[in-house]
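Sync notes, pocket subgroup
Present: LS, DG
LS reminded everyone that the earlier model was apo-only. Rerun requested with zinc ion included. Inputs:
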Amino acid sequence: MSSLAQHKFPLNPHHGTATRGRFLLCNTRVYCSSTTTTTAATKLRSDAKQLIIEPQLESSKPLVVTSTTITNPPSSNDPSLQSTWSHRAWVAAGCTTVLVSLAKCISQSAILRVWFEPVLAGWIGYILADLGSGVYHWAIDNYGDGSTPVFGSQIEAFQGHHKWPWTITRRQFANNLHALARAVTFTVLPIELVCNDPSLLGFVGVCSGCIMFSQQFHAWAHGTKSRLPPLVLALQDAGVLVSRSQHAAHHKPPYNDNYCIVSGAWNEFLDEHKVFQVLEMILYFKLGVRPRSWSEPNSEWLEEVEVSSQISAQ
Ligand SMILES: [Zn+2]
Ligand SMILES: [Zn+2]
């Protein structure tokens, strides 16, 4: 998950939405300052629709309302969706790192003649990779913005994905995976260079492999049944990979569930026990930070948002 999806998206237009919304708000507040209260202005700041309606009710001057689409999804041949040689090199490095870890796990298992523990460790790695994908996805969906250190581009990428979710299926393979592949290379390579424990190597190899390919699993979850390979369909139907229906629920209101994108095995438990909602409450009361999913309606997460602008006719 992670880094990825709309990693190279022209997200600036999207963020331009928010920025522009705030800019329009400023204009409106100046214009209406003699007739609106502080409470009304605050309300307008959090709701773009009210931005349109309330000044019209309170202003004695006629308003000209114009609707402008300020965001556009990338076309199929947009360069931001294409793989570069740099992307391919990082994916090759990530795959090599994972394969070396698994190969070393098998060779050490053969030398030590232990198989149960490494296999169990690999299975645990697969299960925890799904949980990790959900926690990470929840965090960057709800907190921070484009200016957040380290994770800013990924936060922007996931917000862009919520705006144009279908475009992930048009993104080329290496373009979609390169950021995670880079993270896996830097994280796993040092471990496998110094570690000879087959169980740890099995865990690291499977877990990092699932995390690196989680963006591909995610892309398949957005695919249509008729276009997906039969094996992928079978794995989705068996629950080995996150299913299309389960991930589709994540892209519907209230946008605060089904975050896991490897197998989706954790989604039911996490959502049933409201684990993320509890974490959100803890963070809110401890740090005063509100998650994006609490904002309703959240225009930043709606597909194909149109932002209306308004100007005074006089
Ligand atoms: Zn999301
Ligand atoms: Zn998605």
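DG: Residues 161, 165, 218, 222, 247, 251 surround zinc ion (ligand 2) (CB under 6 Å).
LS: The two ends are 50 Å apart (CA to CA).
Action: DG to write up.
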